[in-house]
Amino acid sequence: MISTHVLDTERGAPARGVRVDLYRDDVLVGSGETDGDGRIAELAGEGLHPGPYRIVFHPPSRFFRRVELKIEIEDADRHHHVPLLISSYGCASYRGS
Fold this sequence. Notes:
The chain has 97 residues and is mainly beta. It is built from no helices and ten strands. The protein is globular.
Protein backbone atom coordinates (compact mmCIF):
# COMPACT_ATOMS: atom_id res chain seq x y z
CA MET A 1 0.00 0.00 0.00
CA ILE A 2 1.08 3.59 -0.65
CA SER A 3 -0.19 6.49 1.45
CA THR A 4 0.74 10.17 1.56
CA HIS A 5 0.43 13.27 3.69
CA VAL A 6 0.84 16.85 2.41
CA LEU A 7 1.76 19.58 4.89
CA ASP A 8 1.72 23.28 4.07
CA THR A 9 4.77 24.38 6.06
CA GLU A 10 4.17 28.04 5.18
CA ARG A 11 0.85 28.04 7.01
CA GLY A 12 1.78 25.33 9.50
CA ALA A 13 -1.27 23.26 8.57
CA PRO A 14 -2.32 20.21 6.54
CA ALA A 15 -2.80 20.91 2.83
CA ARG A 16 -6.41 20.03 2.05
CA GLY A 17 -7.72 19.21 -1.42
CA VAL A 18 -4.35 18.51 -3.06
CA ARG A 19 -4.64 16.20 -6.06
CA VAL A 20 -2.08 13.38 -6.06
CA ASP A 21 -1.58 10.92 -8.93
CA LEU A 22 0.37 7.66 -8.89
CA TYR A 23 1.83 6.26 -12.11
CA ARG A 24 3.53 2.98 -12.99
CA ASP A 25 5.41 3.76 -16.20
CA ASP A 26 2.93 6.05 -17.97
CA VAL A 27 -0.17 4.30 -16.62
CA LEU A 28 -2.23 6.03 -13.90
CA VAL A 29 -2.72 3.40 -11.17
CA GLY A 30 -4.03 5.59 -8.35
CA SER A 31 -5.35 9.06 -7.73
CA GLY A 32 -6.91 11.01 -4.93
CA GLU A 33 -7.31 14.29 -3.10
CA THR A 34 -6.00 14.98 0.39
CA ASP A 35 -8.61 15.05 3.13
CA GLY A 36 -9.05 17.64 5.89
CA ASP A 37 -5.93 16.32 7.61
CA GLY A 38 -3.87 16.53 4.40
CA ARG A 39 -3.82 12.74 4.01
CA ILE A 40 -4.62 10.10 1.46
CA ALA A 41 -4.76 6.87 3.43
CA GLU A 42 -4.60 4.60 0.38
CA LEU A 43 -3.28 6.03 -2.87
CA ALA A 44 -2.65 2.47 -4.04
CA GLY A 45 -3.60 -0.78 -2.38
CA GLU A 46 -3.99 -4.24 -3.83
CA GLY A 47 -2.36 -4.84 -7.18
CA LEU A 48 0.82 -2.98 -6.24
CA HIS A 49 3.89 -4.66 -7.77
CA PRO A 50 7.61 -4.16 -7.19
CA GLY A 51 9.22 -1.61 -9.50
CA PRO A 52 9.41 2.10 -10.28
CA TYR A 53 6.51 4.49 -9.63
CA ARG A 54 5.98 8.24 -9.95
CA ILE A 55 3.95 10.21 -7.43
CA VAL A 56 2.78 13.55 -8.82
CA PHE A 57 1.55 16.20 -6.38
CA HIS A 58 -0.40 19.28 -7.54
CA PRO A 59 0.12 21.54 -4.47
CA PRO A 60 -1.41 24.94 -3.66
CA SER A 61 2.03 26.59 -3.70
CA ARG A 62 2.34 29.79 -5.74
CA PHE A 63 5.74 28.63 -6.98
CA PHE A 64 5.75 24.82 -6.98
CA ARG A 65 2.86 23.95 -9.30
CA ARG A 66 3.78 20.27 -9.71
CA VAL A 67 6.09 18.10 -7.62
CA GLU A 68 7.03 14.71 -9.01
CA LEU A 69 8.82 12.00 -7.03
CA LYS A 70 10.19 8.80 -8.50
CA ILE A 71 10.17 5.94 -6.03
CA GLU A 72 11.14 2.28 -6.18
CA ILE A 73 8.88 -0.31 -4.54
CA GLU A 74 10.90 -3.37 -3.57
CA ASP A 75 8.36 -5.13 -1.35
CA ALA A 76 4.78 -4.71 -2.58
CA ASP A 77 3.43 -6.32 0.61
CA ARG A 78 4.81 -3.50 2.76
CA HIS A 79 3.14 -0.17 3.57
CA HIS A 80 4.94 2.77 1.94
CA HIS A 81 4.26 6.29 3.21
CA VAL A 82 5.53 9.24 1.12
CA PRO A 83 4.84 12.67 2.71
CA LEU A 84 5.38 16.06 1.06
CA LEU A 85 6.18 19.27 2.93
CA ILE A 86 5.48 22.33 0.77
CA SER A 87 5.53 26.13 0.89
CA SER A 88 6.13 28.96 -1.56
CA TYR A 89 9.82 28.77 -0.69
CA GLY A 90 10.66 25.09 -0.70
CA CYS A 91 9.51 21.51 -0.71
CA ALA A 92 10.84 18.29 0.77
CA SER A 93 9.86 14.67 1.06
CA TYR A 94 11.05 11.67 3.02
CA ARG A 95 10.36 7.99 3.34
CA GLY A 96 7.80 7.76 6.09
CA SER A 97 6.78 4.82 8.21
